[in-house]
Amino acid sequence: MSRPLDGLLVVSLEQAIAAPYCTRLLADQGARVIKVERPDGGDFARAYDTRVRGLSSHFVWTNRSKESLALDLKQPGAVEALRKLVARADILVQNLAPGAVDRLGLAPADLRAANPRLVTCSISGYGPGGPHAQRKAYDLLVQAEAGFLSVTGSSAEMAKAGISIADIASGVTAYHSILAALLHRANTGKGDHIEVSMLEAMAEWMGFPMYFAFEGAPPPPRAGAGHATIYPYGPYATADGMVFFGLQNDREWAAFAEIVLQMPDMAADPRFKGNAGRAGHREVIEPVLVEVLSSLASAEAMARLEKAGIGTAQVSDMAALWQHPQLAARNRWGEFGSPAGTLPGLKPVSGAAWEPRFDPVPALGEHTQAILAELGIAPDEL
């Protein structure tokens, strides 16, 4: 069975999350990904924690289906070996410190002179040039710079995302940009260079609040687990727990008022027409919602919401997500290898005609000897 990216060779000078997540997505679809690591510890994400049978949770998540090549790039022979490998590659991804690849003599333009079909992708915090080009850029810092923290949290306190959202945004942006460059190469025969900035990737994802605050308008307020502009939307206490639901339009509001609140007069009230009308009269609607829902058991509240056709959800913790009945029913779990043995994982999305790769997480330097042999290099030459 063939996969969309079978036959493509990706070399990655990567660490942390952004670049490793990008290249794991490429590996999922069949690309051969060679991860170049320092011999003395490798990608520092290997040591973030030991929660997966001694392995790092971040590393297990982002480094499946790769090969690990340990090279000390302070040694000229190792750099030459890397250059020889890149000369065979289709894609080079890197998220080293700004200027590091240039100092190694691996500038994208120079590499493409030797390999014109090479697609290179550099991921950095702020992009080359500009006043922030040399600044360190960790996920939280980019969340702050991109305005994400200003719209996330409660009215009393801002909050960061519970996942590395800036890293993920830049990794996904790099992934789809590389796919676009491959399509362009198929048409032109030429490679290209892509610059992905974590700040710019997050700024794109911040499009709604940016336009909501267009030309100096007030930004959306921090609304906790609710929504800044859509109402009603979010969590509500019941007599024995909590329900989450959201309304999108007047049709749903009418059903909600009649079936859930059992107050059809509210459905016809002209003050509550349109989302803007409901959001503008929260002080009238909110006490009614709180009173009705807090008098109902969660099961009864859910039954009324579902009868009304209102979107609802339960709050899953991580244990519940591992056991989610929908993921199990769709056979979305698989197993892959690792230095700690077989592990479960969510299978990548694929087409109907192919199965994604689901290969092991590599140990540090696990494939060094084999890759050097492919290049005709003896280890002592390094």
Average of the residue pLDDT scores: 93
Which spans have pLDDT < 50 for at least 5 consecutive residues? none
Task: Give a quick account of the main beta sheet: strands, pairing sense, barrel closure.
Answer: 6 strands, parallel
CATH architecture of the largest domain: 3-Layer(aba) Sandwich
The radius of gyration over CA amounts to 25 Å
Strand content: 5-15%
Q: Give the helix proportion (percent range).
A: 25-40%
Tell me the overall shape: elongated
The number of domains is: 2
What's the helix-strand series?
EHEHEHEHHEHHEHHEEHHHHHEHHEEH
Count of β-strands:
11
The CATH superfamily of the largest domain appears as Crotonobetainyl-coa:carnitine coa-transferase, domain 1
From the 3D structure, determine the CATH topology of the largest domain. Rossmann fold
Strand order of the largest sheet: 3-2-1-4-5-6
H/I helix tally:
17
CA-CA gap between termini: 38 Å
Secondary structural class: alpha/beta
CATH class value of the largest domain: Alpha Beta
List keywords for this structure.
14% strand; 2 domains; 382 residues; elongated; alpha/beta; 3-stranded antiparallel beta sheet; Rossmann fold; single chain; formyl-coa transferase, domain 3; 38% helix
Describe the structure.
The protein is of the alpha/beta class and 382 residues long. The chain has 2 domains: 9-206 and 352-381, Rossmann fold (3-Layer(aba) Sandwich); 233-318, formyl-coa transferase, domain 3 (2-Layer Sandwich). The chain contains 17 helices and 11 strands. It has helices at residues 18-28, 57-62, 76-86, 100-103, 108-114, 139-145, 165-188, 198-205, 207-212, 250-260, 264-268, 274-280, 282-294, 298-307, 318-322, 325-329, 368-374, and strands at residues 9-13, 32-37, 66-70, 91-94, 119-124, 192-197, 233-237, 242-246, 311-313, 333-336, 343-346. The strands form 3 sheets. Strands 3-2-1-4-5-6 form a 6-stranded parallel β-sheet, with helices on both faces. The protein has a 3-stranded antiparallel β-sheet with strand order 7-8-9, with helices on one face. A two-stranded antiparallel ribbon has the order 10-11. α2 (57-62) links the parallel β2 (32-37) and β3 (66-70). The longest helix is centred in the middle third of the chain and has 24 residues, at 165-188. 33% of the residues are buried. The mean pLDDT is 93.
